[in-house]
Amino acid sequence: xxxGKYAIETxxxxxxxxxxxxxxxxxxxxxxxxxxxxxxxxxxLEFERxxxxxxxxxxxxxxxxxxxxxxxxLYVLLMGELPASAKERKFANARLVPPKEINSGISDRTSRxxxxxxxxxxxxLIFLGHAALALVEG
Length: 138
Hints:
about 15% strand; single chain; three-stranded antiparallel beta sheet; alpha+beta
């Protein structure tokens, strides 16, 4: 991908418009890459609908997806395995195994932060984003 700059390692999740992947650069650093899904890319009407709705969707979901993607990426990098997907958790009641149960070497604080970042409720995640920003800004 991107002229060999990134190699896709695994799919992290799928949404209405896109797919999120965990990729590695040439140095082995992990990155999250988001792409449009085939349905949007191959259907001119769907692509037009996506363009029309993009700004609104991006505004509503930006904080959610950024926080969730970061937490999911940390989960994969620190646990060495994929967490249960948001879809499995939401619709099949799959359990998100707390990171501390898989990797006892991480701190309780890190484990709690990953779990909080993988919260399924958008309103809660937006609150987390604002709280984190307030802590950073002091």
